[in-house]
Write a structure and sequence with these properties.
Helix content is 23%, strand content 23%. It is built from 30 helices and 53 strands. The strands form 15 sheets. The chain has a six-stranded antiparallel sheet. A six-stranded parallel sheet has the order 30-29-28-27-26-35, with helices on one face. Strand 28, helix 12 and strand 29 form a beta-alpha-beta unit.
Length: 1309
């Protein structure tokens, strides 16, 4: 008998080769052939390229072949916008294999046709497509010939098609129009952000984003499977799989067969009754370790059906519960005629592939292994295999494979042909809990309403995460590794949920696989965002096909927790004059699309799915019948909230409302200089440069950044280029005038027809540029537009740079929602002192570069602190009866280009400061401080928050640290707790003290030891501008919890019922001793063999390596800093930071990286004074350090390890701890003092980081004091001169503005 390991190994080997097994008989993958050709429409240089494979976008190929430069370099977005207005034809000549022609039917399956496409085979029409979000398939049997064949796919300009459809629609259907964006994205089924957003460019690329295959079959064939799971009261799980089986093809002679039959043959096919096919469906399930197996079988009979007959049967048909049905998910509007109206498969030419029949099989598991988010438990994944074997009737079916393939599945509208499909699945129950709340007091804001939170396997989940947007401007450029890295980065920041924003794309299978493996939930939205949408029959039918396909495709993924109908479409009712004038019309449109179509499509595939019709929303008055709670979607009492407030104090906890669930919020920052410099020129490195304004697509973005900086950091007004004049002109021109000009310029042929491209560049009669073109071109006037590489591209045609405006009404947020309004400080128009104009001296240019880099750092620090303030407040609110906040998903996880945005991860994969902050403020066990006032005194509250399913007890300390401290004895312990506990899933106020007592304690500290030059008299209070407070909490023991029935709640650290530490059953005690470095060196792997696990708390010897890693990752110390004045008012002591580069492979580097799976090199940071928010950035290699925005104390140097993007992928998801190492010691270090420039030659050189030749890594170091000195040298010199001055007695009268900033530091015990 084979062992479990042998069985598992056999499955893994077969999984690896499964794609070959699945398609060897039936499929010809045309996309893999490197003989494709690309031609553009009339004009624009008559581009012709050949010799490439798919997937690819047209503009991507132009760059790859050297026709144009990097689309993201400088102003190339304008130079290359002509490509969006052109039509592109992808063509391929290929040999048709005789064995494929011998099949009864050959189907052409295309994935990712982006977007409006027309296909021909051997010059005969095949069909049209109009949706990039789903596959399309046609029966091309009659069009194929023996030998050479020619396939042509013409993609029409998406912006031109959108404008033509908008013009033909009977009334206005408004949508968000961002500065720099292309209009009318809501009229084509393409990623909305392809048209431009306020965090990304507008390329609207045309391309083929997926596979193009010919699939031959002579029998019924599996198309895909949809998976449903039902968790029963006794703990068992019923797993139901809907097998979607394409009917046997009606025998139709091919061109070759018809010719052989002679001219008298009528070409008629045998009757369907003569071709009935019997077969067997087999469902198999294997446990995660391969030791257990379950199966279910179902005998089915299939009749040959053509597309028209199948579609007719679909109209109003009943869903089959097991015996098979005419249509898997019938809907009256889904018919052959509707496909023609939508320009889909049934329009003209080859017939569409008939829809599959649904057959259901079930398996029941009595003792399932449940899947959890990574902070609640493990992620066991079962292997699910569905196979079909024809037993009689037609011949030619493939033999059943011995193991399931992992080839990405097709969908209910796809052709299929494979006889074996496989998925991995996690068994879990996820609920959205919306229960009425009773007011805690009369009129209390947020005190009534409903809950809004998720339960996973009956346990409450505090959702911590972010919104994810498309990973690249070209979908074909996105790799599985890139998607996996983003998920890994999210998990490394303790996120347990990602929201797939509805203005982008449905992600490839690799993203959802990574979420399943990492234990990260997905809030999945249908791809509709920020506007109104048409509701004609063709559009609704296309929406139904798209959503039902995507829900079926993703139904097996344990991570997918909720489906949303759209992003901010209900919120956008307040943005447009049209919706304000006729709200009933647009409410009807909304309800038809997102309630009657999208919702029903989701529930028809999975009746148990959780669905919300929009986000944000106020939820429902009734689920049956379905009745929305219309109204202000910003009401914190109900549903989820999107919160953007760019006017009020971003560092004040009172700014943030007591919402039940925050699914979007944020504040902008500039991209990291290392990422920005790769696509810009030196003359662009200034806040006053045209490039800065060109890349800022959020209206008033620079002014909003400056206003917050002046509030918190800068004593003089921030200065940047004036953005408002051009933007005001854009707003005054109006969308109507722009669209009229575009329609005139591109003269679409008519509604529903393909619009031709703009006239050729050489055409002397071309129309004038549409409004807005000149304004963006003016932004590039300070520097000539240049290509980064390759030959100069064709001249942009007239109208290629058309710009839009903000919608009427309130300005839109990054996701589309309106920002809270209030006064915004205007910034000066002049360049900052010392910033050189183009052509200035080299010294001036270097100073300009340093100031610009310092500005990017300060913008990111400001962003991180703002998010930290908000997240700390919302996490404390989880136990506030008036709020009960149970989730925070910030905007946004990732970037699509190197420009200002809300992102925490740059487009090259490197981390902005925000993501480093997120690793701290999303830590499952959190300490935070809050300054409160009752009108007579100010109190400091210290809160503990615990999102884990175990109780935690630890040590808590509150210390006062002078800004000019140089030795450990300068730190004054204010309060010490040997044992402070917080319950599972809970939070509590553990201590509060008056600010008066804190100032007195800090004053005594100065008097009794002296920090720097302080000579505060004994018994006097310290000046709050001279010191800050550090809160530190370290877990010591962990206690298992029980549910209301007394049953032990599962947890990620040890098995239920196991004894935890010594002397106390079920209690995990603090483990290890000595310094952090010593404990790291002595760490065991925590393996099942009993090796010691050196986690912050001691685990039982029987724990697995996964449980040990979870403890090391989730039970770290937490630190928060509390500042008592605005930082611009604090008397910061000057600090000089020294950087020591630790070579790769050295003992010191290996010791520092022992817990972080390697790293290419490390740096050791030390300082002669307290240095705030120290950040290290690699300049020549994308990646991240395992810590940033650190507090660096003179007596406590830190070592940070650098991980290149490729290596960060492997280290992020499973790394036990990536915290910086304190006092690592070591040898082989080259000291690099970071002086006034914050960079040195060997640090800021042009060599690649840690290259094999031994060149020093190219890095930059930033910290707050040095940044403020760079930006405001006179003000900082004055502050430095008074940093050591004494505090003249107790503070009298009202205190200066009190500011709470909390820096949560994950550190070793």
């Amino acid at each position: 008998m084979p062992t479990a390991f042998t069985r598992l190994l056999r499955v893994l080997i077969l999984l690896a080769v499964a794609p070959t097994l699945a398609w060897a008989v039936f499929s010809l993958p045309l996309h893999e052939q490197a003989a494709w050709r690309l031609d553009n429409g009339r004009g624009f240089g008559n581009v012709s390229l050949e010799g490439f494979s798919l997937p690819a976008a047209a503009l991507q190929l132009l760059h790859r072949k050297g026709i144009v430069g990097d689309p993201l370099y400088r102003y190339n977005e304008l130079e290359q916008r002509w490509a969006a207005w052109d039509n592109w034809t992808f063509s391929l000549e290929f040999e048709m294999p005789p064995e494929l022609l011998a099949e009864a039917a050959v189907e052409l399956v295309c994935e990712g046709l982006d977007t409006v496409a027309e296909l021909t085979m051997n010059s005969a029409p095949v069909g049209r497509a109009a949706n990039a979000h789903r596959p399309h398939a046609w029966d091309v049997t009659r069009l194929l010939a023996a030998g050479r064949n020619l396939l042509e796919v013409t993609l029409f300009s998406a912006p031109a098609q959108a404008l033509a459809r908008q013009a033909a629609y009977p009334y206005a259907v408004p949508a968000n129009q961002i500065i720099g964006a292309l209009p009318a994205y809501n009229f084509v089924r393409k990623a909305s952000s392809d048209f431009g957003w306020d965090w990304g460019p507008a390329f609207a690329p045309a391309g083929i984003n997926g596979r193009v295959e010919l699939r031959g079959r002579s029998t019924a064939a599996l198309s895909c499977m949809a998976v449903r799971q039902r968790h029963l009261a006794n703990g068992s799980v019923e797993l139901t799989v809907d097998a979607l089986l394409l009917p046997p093809p009606v025998a139709v002679p091919s061109v070759q067969q018809a010719a052989a039959a002679g001219p008298d043959a009528d070409g008629s096919a045998p009757s369907a009754a003569q071709q009935a096919e019997r077969g067997t469906l087999l469902l198999q399930l294997a446990s995660p370790d391969g030791s257990q197996h379950w199966q279910s079988t179902l005998d089915v009979t299939s009749l040959p059906t053509d597309a028209d007959a199948a579609a007719a049967a679909c109209r109003g048909g009943a869903i089959s519960s097991g015996g098979g049905g005419a249509c898997p998910w019938p809907w009256p509007l889904l018919s052959a005629s509707s496909g023609a109206e939508a320009g889909g498969e049934g329009s003209r030419g080859a017939p569409a592939v008939p829809p599959p029949a649904k057959h259901s099989l079930s398996i029941t598991l009595d003792s399932p292994q449940l899947w959890w988010t990574h902070d609640l438990g493990p992620q066991p994944l079962y292997t699910l295999q569905l196979s079909y074997q024809a037993s009689s009737g037609r011949q030619g079916s493939a033999p059943m494979a011995e193991a399931p393939p992992t080839a990405e599945e097709s969908g209910p509208g796809d052709s299929g042909g494979s006889q074996v499909l496989a998925k991995r699945i996690g068994l879990r129950r996820i609920e959205l809990v919306t229960q009425p709340l009773q007011p805690t007091q009369e009129g209390a804001a947020g005190s009534a309403g409903e809950t809004f939170f998720f339960r996973v396997n009956d346990q409450p989940l505090y959702a911590r995460g972010a919104n994810i947007v498309p990973a690249h401007i070209f979908e074909p450029a996105v790799t599985a590794a890139q998607l996996g890295r983003l998920v890994g980065d999210a998990r490394a920041a303790h996120m347990n949920m990602l929201r797939v924003w509805g203005g982008g794309r449905y992600f490839a299978e690799a993203f959802y696989d990574a979420c399943d493996e990492a234990g990260v939930l997905v809030w999945q939205e249908a791809m509709f965002a920020c506007g109104m949408y048409p509701r004609d029959r063709a559009f609704l039918a296309e929406a139904w096909r798209e959503v039902s396909y995507q829900v079926a495709r993703l139904s097996s993924h344990a991570a997918v927790a909720i489906w949303g109908g759209n992003n901010e479409n209900e919120a956008s009712f307040g943005w447009f004059p049209e919706t304000a004038a006729n709200p009933q019309l647009y409410a009807a449109d909304f309800s038809k699309l997102f309630v009657d179509v999208v919702r029903e499509a989701v529930l028809s595939v999975d009746p148990g799915a959780t669905y919300v019709d929009t986000s944000p929303s106020n939820g429902l008055l009734s689920s049956e019948p379905y009745v929305k709670r219309w109204g202000n979607v910003g009401d914190p009492r109900y549903g989820d909230v999107h919160y953007y407030n760019f006017a009020d104090d971003a560092f004040s906890p009172a700014t943030y409302p007591p919402a039940k669930f925050v699914s979007e919020f944020g504040f902008m920052s500039l991209p990291s200089f290392s990422a920005y410099k790769a696509v810009t020129a030196p003359e662009d490195w200034s806040l006053a440069s045209p490039m800065t304004s060109f890349r800022m697509r959020h209206a008033n973005g620079l002014a909003e950044l400056a206003a917050q900086m002046e509030r918190h950091f800068l004593t003089a007004p921030a200065q940047h280029a004036q953005q408002t004049p051009g933007h005001e002109q854009l707003a005054q021109q109006g969308t109507t005038a722009q669209l009229a000009a575009l329609l005139h310029a591109y003269a679409p042929a008519g509604a529903g027809q393909a619009a031709g491209p703009p006239p050729a560049v050489a055409d002397p009669g071309r129309p004038p540029s549409p409004p807005g073109t000149a304004l963006l071109e003016e932004l590039s006037a300070a520097s000539p537009v240049q290509e980064a590489a390759g030959a100069p591209g064709p001249e942009p045609p007239a109208g290629a740079g058309s710009q839009g405006q903000e919608p009427a009404g309130e300005p839109a947020s990054p996701g589309g929602t309106q920002a809270a309004q209030g006064p915004v400080a205007e910034a000066g128009a002049g360049a900052p002192p010392g910033q050189a104009s183009e052509g200035g001296s080299q010294q001036q240019q270097e100073q300009q570069r340093r100031r610009f880099a310092a500005s990017t750092y300060l913008s990111q620090l400001q962003q991180g602190l703002a998010y930290q303030t908000a997240v700390h407040q919302w996490r404390r609110n989880k136990v506030d009866p008036a709020a009960q906040t149970m989730g925070v998903l910030y905007w946004q996880l990732n970037d699509i280009w190197q420009g200002p945005s809300w992102s925490g991860i740059n487009s090259d994969g490197s981390w902005r400061l925000l993501h480093h902050f997120a690793t701290d403020f999303f830590s499952p066990v959190l300490v935070s401080g809050l300054l409160t006032s009752d009108g007579t005194s100010v109190q400091l509250e210290v809160h503990l928050t615990n999102d884990l399913p175990v109780g935690v007890t630890g040590s808590l300390s509150v210390d006062a640290i002078p800004f000019n401290a140089t030795r450990p004895e300068h730190v004054k312990p204010v309060h010490q707790f040997a044992s402070a506990s917080v319950p599972a899933f809970g939070g509590r106020l553990v201590w509060n003290g008056s600010l008066e007592d804190l100032l007195a304690a800090a004053g005594n500290s100065s008097a009794s030891g002296g920090a720097g030059g302080s000579n505060t008299a004994a018994g006097t209070a310290a000046n709050p501008a001279d010191f800050f407070l550090r809160l530190r909490y370290c877990p010591i023991t962990v206690h298992p919890s029980q549910d209301s029935n007394g049953t032990a709640v599962p947890n990620p650290f040890f098995d239920s019922g196991s004894s935890g530490g010594s002397g106390s059953s079920g209690v995990l005690q603090q483990g290890g001793s000595g310094s952090p470095a010593e404990r790291q060196a002595a760490a065991g792997d925590g393996s099942e063999g009993g090796a010691r696990c050196d986690a912050p708390v001691q685990l039982p010897g029987s724990v697995s390596s996964v449980q040990c890693a979870a403890a090391k990752r989730l039970l770290q110390c937490s630190e928060s800093l509390v500042f008592l004045t605005e930082l611009k008012d604090a008397r910061l002591a000057p600090a000089n930071v020294t950087v020591e580069v630790v070579p790769a492979g050295s003992a010191a580097q290996q010791a520092a990286a022992s817990d972080a799976l390697g790293g290419s090199f490390a740096v050791r940071l030390s300082s002669d004074a307290v240095a705030l928010f120290v950040s290290v950035e690699a300049l020549q290699q994308a990646g991240r350090f395992n810590g940033s925005a650190r507090l660096l104390l003179p007596w406590q140097p830190q070592t940070l390890v650098f991980f290149p993007v490729a290596q960060a992928l492997s280290s992020s998801p499973g790394s036990a701890s990536t915290a910086p190492q304190e006092e690592p010691g070591g040898t082989g270090m080259a000291a690099v003092p970071a002086g006034p420039a914050a960079e040195q030659a060997q640090v800021a050189g042009q060599g690649a980081a840690a290259d094999p030749g031994g060149a020093a890594p190219s890095i930059s170091v930033y910290w707050l004091q040095q940044t403020l000195a760079e930006l405001q040298p006179e003000a900082q010199a004055q502050a430095a001169s008074s940093a050591g001055a004494s505090s003249a007695g107790a503070v009298a009268g009202p205190l200066p503005t009190l500011l709470l900033l909390a820096l949560l530091c994950v550190a070793l015990v």
